[in-house]
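User: Okay, second chain of the day. Same drill as before: sequence in, structure tokens out.
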Amino acid sequence: MRATVNPHNNLAHCFYCKKNWNNIDLLRTLDYEFLAAVRLLECWLNQHEAQQGRKKPASR
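Assistant: Same drill. Structure tokens below.
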């Protein structure tokens, strides 16, 4: 998949298939289960926030 993320709508656009994908659907195309994709994205968000010096969001 050849994709680029549009920062205005946070969708990845695949230039091969000409479709827009949200983060979870994009990971699902890479054989992630839904919950595993959500957990991975949560982990990446926490890492990004830590690098930016932000507080970790409260767990639900």
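Residues 34-51 form the longest helix (18 residues).

User: Thanks, on to the next one.
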